[in-house]
Amino acid sequence: MSASFREAAVSAGQVRRAYEVVRAALLAEIGPDGHWTGELSSSALSTATAVMAFTQCRRFARQPERFAAEYPMLERLTEGGLRWLAEHQNPDGGWGDTVLSLSNISTTMLGHAVFHAAGAADRFSATVDAAARYIERAGGVSAVLARYGRDRTFSIPILTHCALAGTVDWRHVLPLPFELACLPARFYKTVRLPVVSYALPALIAIGQVVHRHRPTPFLPLRWLRNAAIEPSLRILERIQPPNGGFLEATPLTSFVTMSLAACGRVEHPVVQRGLAFLVASVRSDGSWPIDTNLATWVTTLAVNALGEDLPQAHCRPLLHWLLAQQYRHVHPYTNAAPGGWAWTDLPGGVPDADDTPGAILAVIELAERLVRGGDADAAGEVHAARNAVRDGIRWLLDLQNRDGGWPTFCRGWGRLPFDRSAADLTAHAIRALRRWRDWDGEADTRLRNRADRAVERGFRYLARTQRPDGCWLPLWFGNQYAATEDNPTYGTARVLMAYAACGRWDDPACRRGVIGLLGLQNAGGGFGAGPDTPDSVEETALAVEALATVRSRSPDLQRAVQFLIGCVEDGRFRHPAPIGFYFAKLWYFERLYPLIFSAAALRRAALLADNG
User: Within 13 Å and on the Cβ side, how many CA atoms surround 238?
Assistant: First the structure.
């Protein structure tokens, strides 16, 4: 069954008018520096860990009076964080990661513990008692361990935080082999670290504080770990960004800071820089975000969403800015080769296989716009863009796993979920490779052939990982209302975009994907993560963009477009949903996601409507 926009209840004019509203709203978000920055959600998890870092530093400072004089703001920030937590506790007594999130055991245990650590349990007795009841109902320590399985990247930091507060016994905190950090980095994936590739700072700092409180009874290993303390601290100091924020992430930086402080190392440079980062990151309401910003990510998403409709005046400044964000040296943290892009323009970023394809697509779009705009001075910039994109392509090709998929940061780790290949990353890489292949006719033949082989391997990976219902699951996005917290809407929509980019409309996997995606639609036309999960602007927009791109004529697409137009007309297109994962099931929402995804979707729908 098929239908055109001319025959549907929603007209091409309605689609175009809604798109222009969203486009104007998105363009209004460009900052004074000429790019988008966005705004991440405030986080109970981040706030609890930041306050815990402050309490441990104040407690273990060797010269408390001098420390208090150097950091007079910590008492105020501690009180502000506690009050924010108390004011944003959910009715069930727990906390979610964002103010829009359902309660979870991890964040609730962190929040509960920090009131005890700060000596504020009596003053906030109602808050603390309600949290304790939630923790008991949810299963406490056992529930935390079950939530993360074999991956200790986050379960051990949570329990360490609680042990420092005295709410969990140290016997529940498994040791981390921080001595392995002293090995050459090329051996990390070989020794199968119990944490993911980006968690080396936590391995070192938390491993040391656990060793201090729970040393192994096996004396040779204890001696080895004692000998590894100073060398591993030197590694930690070397890989810390100059602003102190590991990954620009408040939780990771807080875990490192509180752990070293509790080892009596408050004066250590890593702790001092970590404190400076946390103090600088607090918001005016007393909370902390999960990360400083996703400026590079949201900028590339916005550029790619608007395409030809990005005003010409913005193209050159955005191109210059994006080219400046490319990593030109080996990354000191993950040892990533030059050529990739991270999610942020700040020093804590790490190049990855989602931001790099997004940047490649955006750089190509902007370079093409300069040429099509008749810019007489564009030759040098286009040449620079071509070289930068080639470096990015090589970076992506070198990252591809043996299974044909792409991981996030490091090739070949693969033991833990957030280091494995993922469908959303693989689809994004395929789109970038294909776009470059069509754009750069002057590229070396060997590089072009290598890219072609990588795309074929990527599609074989996608075919293998497609679910029986036709859907794909992403790594970096979820849905809190889904039983498994997965988000097949995001995953399937992103993979369909890759099939469309390569003209594989009739591929059986693509056809099954379209059917699978339509099967996730709610009765009212919107999308969540499946039938009977709440609609969101983001998920509906992602589905619309993908279905319009694969040229679907299903009446269900018209219903989804109509739902999205309704969101624009009543202002809901500005309301974000917490569908983002920031590592290890840490939820976030980004204020610009609904605007960006709606712009991309309505632009695609408008083009489809214009063609009848």
Answer: 14
Domains identified in the chain and CATH numbers: 1-30+485-606 (1.50.10.20), 33-40+293-465 (1.50.10.20), 42-289 (1.50.10.20)
Q: pLDDT tens-digit profile of 236-292?
A: 999 999 999 999 999 999 999 999 999 999 999 999 999 999 999 999 999 999 999
CA angle 34, 39, 43 (to 5 degrees): 155
CA–CA separation, 282 vs 364, rounded Å?
36
Letter for the amino acid at 266?
A: V
Q: Is the pLDDT at 190 greater than 70, yes or no?
A: no
Identify the DSSP state of 535. Answer: P
Of the candidates 149, 216, 140, which has an alpha carbon nearest to the alpha carbon of residue 177? 216
Concatenating the DSSP letter of every residue in 397-466 gives HHH--TTS-B-SS-TT--SSGGGS-BHHHHHHHHHHHHHHHHH-TTS-HHHHHHHHHHHHHHHHHHHHH-
Answer yes or no: pTM beyond 0.85. Answer: yes
Comparing CA positions, the residue from 423, 424, 449 lying closest to residue 437 is 449
Instruction: Report the distance separating Cα 369 and Cα 439, nearest Å.
Output: 12
Q: What is the mean pLDDT of the segment spanning 461-470?
A: 98
Name residue 458's amino acid. Answer: G
Distance CA 486, CA 143 (A): 19
How many helices (H) and strands (E) the chain has is answered by 23, 4
Q: How many CB atoms lie within 10 A of CB 401?
A: 21
Contacts 24+ apart (CB under 8 A), 357-360: 357/396, 357/428, 357/429, 357/431, 357/432, 358/297, 358/300, 358/301, 358/304, 358/428, 358/432, 359/296, 359/300, 359/322, 359/325, 359/326, 359/392, 360/389, 360/392, 360/393, 360/396, 360/432, 360/435, 360/436
Choose among 23, 277, 24, 261: nearest CA to 161.
261
